[in-house]
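Quick one:
INPUT:
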């Protein structure tokens, strides 16, 4: 059974930092890409950042570029999202996901709440 275990969310003041972690277990297939998504109340879920597992190449969304960094640890099957200079607009449930093919994301974590107070 595939599980994505997220951690690192919480409450932080504007300007602060958090680091999210997502570890996968039970995955017997090769991972093509892992991504972080977020969904704010009343809004649709959007991609925040993603990393290609084979070479570590990354994509970071425009709204967080320069503030958020995605990285991975192959040995630990873990992906990280370092979030700096947080603003209240970053408040959302953050979820990690795994893509095996480069198209759809097949597996999702349960999500972790990030709340940024002004």
């Amino acid at each position: 059974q595939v599980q994505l275990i997220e951690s690192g969310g919480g409450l932080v003041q504007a300007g602060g930092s958090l680091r999210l972690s997502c570890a996968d277990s039970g995955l017997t297939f090769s991972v093509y890409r892992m991504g972080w998504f977020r969904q704010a109340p009343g809004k649709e879920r959007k991609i925040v950042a993603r990393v290609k597992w084979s070479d570590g190449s990354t994509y970071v969304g425009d709204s967080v570029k320069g503030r958020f960094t995605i990285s991975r640890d192959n040995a630990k099957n873990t992906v990280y999202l370092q979030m700096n200079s947080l603003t209240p607009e970053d408040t959302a449930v953050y979820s990690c996901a795994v893509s095996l093919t480069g198209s759809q994301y097949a597996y999702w974590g349960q999500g972790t709440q990030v709340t940024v107070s002004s």
